Amino acid sequence: MLFNHVKLPSWITFILRSALLGVIISVLMLLLVPELRRGSGITLDWFAYESSAPEKLSYYNAVSHAAPAVVNIYSNSIDVQSSLFTQRSVERTRTSLGSGVIMTENGHILTCLHVIQNAETIFVGLPDGQLAAADLVGQDIHTDLAVLKIDVENLHVIPQLDDPDTRVGDVVLAIGNPLNLGQTITQGIVSRIGRNISSHFIDFIQTDAVLNEGNSGGALVDSNGYLIGINNANFKTVDNRRRLRDVDGVFFAVPYKLARRVMDEIIATGRATHGVLGFSATSMPNTIGIVINTVFPGGPSEQAGLQPDDVIMAIDGVAVKNVYETLDKVASSTPGTILTLEVRRNGETLNLPVTVAELGQQ
Question: What percent of the chain has pLDDT over 90?
Fold first, then answer.
């Protein structure tokens, strides 16, 4: 039986075509818009204009975490000066300006010794405007650090890591009170670690984050706001007129691990000790070991038989990587500890036991 072709009315054809087009559009929307498949729908924000401006780089979060723990320190001392006219001594009160870092909830603050040295009174200005009297817990002349204590509740403690893993090239922020202008942030990078600014300690951080008078004792933090050092000083040199001049872009900080160890010892015993073996050395690039340059007369190393040009390969069985780590290990060793040095000399290997002395007492 033959069926004749039936022509549908135009309005039914329009509805069928519209329905088919709607199905096709719905399938495409489900494929292209994942939110529809999750049932979250499309909000008005979906149609909003998206700005083409990239997200700006900011250290706001780091500063927000660290800055409330950085305080101003004002210390008063009395200078006695002789008058040429009256032939009498005149007492003058001198006020020193510096910064400090809140390290514990109990109110312990780290600062630089030169900020509060010989002070009669010490006051700490908190970021919230409080002014608190501070007591000196102890000091360490070798690292130029001092520990203060204030009796204030609800203190903001600076974020800290056991090992900040500071590297050359890391972005750093220096927080302090330069020239009593109020809390100020400067930014730079780590230029070098293990910088030698004293005859025994080389464990200092060099940075180009600007420090001015008043920054000493403030915080050097990383880009996440964790404390990596206590700001100390800028590099100085003598010009051709034998005047002391500051050098731009070269500043130093005591690294966190050393500063924390010194603080903990001062809190526990009232003083900090530093081990020393009595030698200077140079790292060997891309190889294990350090080369001895000088053996100081009368020191532990000389007594143990260490000689110039010896190469220390290991200490207590642990390979020596560089001078920085070696002197840090020695400095953190308790005086009286015996360390065994594995030394290479003229192709032979020697094991030399050396008794750690206390820095300043040997």
Answer: 53
- Quick check: is 95 in a domain? yes
Provide the annotated active-site residues.
114, 144, 216
> Residue 314: which domain range?
275-358
Residue 14 lies in a domain: no
Amino acid at 83: S
Q: Decide: pTM greater than 0.85.
A: no
Mean per-residue pLDDT for 240-253?
A: 72
- Show which of 269, 301, 324 is a domain's final residue: 269
